[in-house]
Design goal:
Shape: elongated
Strand content: under 5%
Oligomer: single chain
Number of strands: 0
Structural class: mainly alpha
């Protein structure tokens, strides 16, 4: 009975993980397209890495959005340069 309950729970948790990965991937594609328009200049002078390291590819954006999701030092160095240049980007964060 306990093993059957754990199996159902693990199956549910796996579907939640799959759905979360899909949502992060969709947002990563959207943010990558929005940030890499070639027109808007973002000020990443206070950040440890360059903008391309954070948002240069979809995979980099996935990792960055995961960092934002876990709330790991994201406000000043990741998000603020985007929001400062384009206020509509606050919707993603």
């Amino acid at each position: 009975l306990i093993i059957a309950g754990m199996a159902v729970t693990i199956r549910t948790v796996m579907w939640v993980v799959v759905l979360l990965c899909f949502v992060i991937w969709v947002f990563a594609v959207t943010v990558t397209i929005a940030v890499n328009d070639g027109v808007t200049k973002y000020n990443y002078s206070n950040s440890f890495w360059k903008m391309d390291d954070y948002w240069g590819s979809v995979l980099a954006s996935v990792c960055t959005l995961f960092q934002v999701l876990t709330r790991d030092k994201w406000s000043g160095s990741l998000v603020w340069p985007l929001v400062e240049a384009n206020n509509a980007m606050i919707v993603f964060f």
